[in-house]
Amino acid sequence: MGDFVSATDTLIRYRDDETVDHGAVTVDSFLDQSNANAVRVEPGDDARELIPHLSRLSLVEVNFPAFGDGRGYSSARMLREAGYEGELRAVGDVLVDQIAYMRRCGFDAFEPDAALDKDDLAAALARWPEVYQPAADSRKPIWAKRHA
């Protein structure tokens, strides 16, 4: 696997094949197990079911089976707003154009199906230096900076 961390502390992993197993179980399996600490959220899953168990989770993978399916953004934001502090990884059909928005929703790691160009990734993450609304990340909105 190719791992790298950019200047913005974004962890990118690439799959060498489809047999990579990070120990994440389905939401249903997680809720039935007392020892699981990693879960994979699929688009139809209700991430709110994980909220009572956030303290025992170290990894939440959110699957994006198609780039146009945005339900994973909501799952990420709900988990971060509920206090989840572990690794939140977007996996699947993750495009470089989406990563800056995914980071705003709380993702801090990515495992795209296809490799991303490092220069394109750096440009995408640097494209919007200011933001206009609070989100799950720690960036301060520009209006709050003006009136501080």
Automatic annotation (TrEMBL):
The organism's place on the tree of life at top rank: Bacteria
Cited InterPro entries: UCP030820
Pfam families assigned to the protein according to its UniProt record, in alphabetical order: DUF934
Protein name in the entry: DUF934 domain-containing protein
Organism the protein comes from: Qipengyuania psychrotolerans
